[in-house]
Write a structure and sequence with these properties.
The chain has 236 residues and is α/β, with parallel strands linked by helices. 42% of the residues lie in helices and 12% in strands. It has a 6-stranded mixed beta sheet with strand order 1-6-5-2-3-4, sandwiched between helices.
């Protein structure tokens, strides 16, 4: 695989080691505009503001979002003002410390400022990046409606089998609370919301997000009858 001016975006990402797994081989074609009838796709990646700065582990998904935009696709950067209050169990051996709203808002401001340095938010370009905060829609959810309309599409057995949950359940000292267990549903709902609102069809993330990403893909398929995709980078 060579990295020259004639290679497509997929080959370029592969050459740079920025692809770990994908939900469907067709993603390779969709990313290369010449093979997708010239129609760009909308993709998103999310960052929970658990600190006031992004860390080096966020770089690879950010690199992919930047390269997608340079190739003509439209990036959505999601700052998890809602999911950040819950905490993702992935990559953790113990429960995350729950943040108060004031701390989360301060972290959110710092993360947003950093994201704006990597992708172009200029409204004058056709594929201008969009920055969203999932607290805008997650805070509006009503519990009973969410459990009825979304929760019923998630099998507890399948959720337990996800690596991010399975590892914690197998620990003799640390388990997982219902709060963190519900994170997968919220991230899946994010994908559904962005599909409905922006026509987003691709979610990017690090490989530890694979279980959450595939759950979102399945939720969109079940509720909308549409196909969306996932793409992960290696963990740095």
């Amino acid at each position: 695989m060579s990295n020259d001016n004639q290679s497509g975006l997929w080959d370029d990402l592969g050459f740079r080691g920025l692809i770990y797994q994908t939900s469907d081989p067709i993603v390779a074609q969709k990313l290369d505009l010449a093979l997708a009838d010239g129609e760009p796709i909308t993709a998103y990646t999310g960052f929970d503001p658990t600190a006031d700065s992004l860390h080096v582990g966020h770089l690879l998904p950010i690199f992919n979002m930047r390269r997608l935009q340079l190739a003509g696709h439209k990036p959505i950067l999601l700052a998890g003002g809602g999911t950040g209050l819950i905490g993702d169990p992935g990559g953790r051996t113990e429960e995350r410390k729950l943040l108060d709203r004031e701390t989360l808002d301060a972290n959110l401001a710092g993360v947003k400022a950093q994201l704006e340095r990597f992708v172009d938010f200029d409204p004058k370009i056709s594929n201008s990046a969009v920055l969203v905060d999932n607290s805008e829609w997650l805070s509006e959810l009503k519990l009973l409606e969410f459990l009825r309309d979304v929760g019923k599409h998630f099998s507890v057995g399948q959720m337990i089998a996800k690596d991010s949950v399975k590892t914690r359940l197998e620990s003799l000292e640390k388990s997982i609370s219902f709060t963190e267990f519900s994170y997968m549903l919220l991230q899946s709902y994010d994908f559904l919301h962005l599909f409905d609102t922006y026509g987003c069809r691709l979610q990017l993330g690090a490989s530890d997000q694979w279980g959450n990403i595939t759950s979102g893909i399945d939720l969109v398929r079940r509720l909308r009858g549409e196909t969306v995709w996932g793409l992960t980078t290696p963990l740095l």
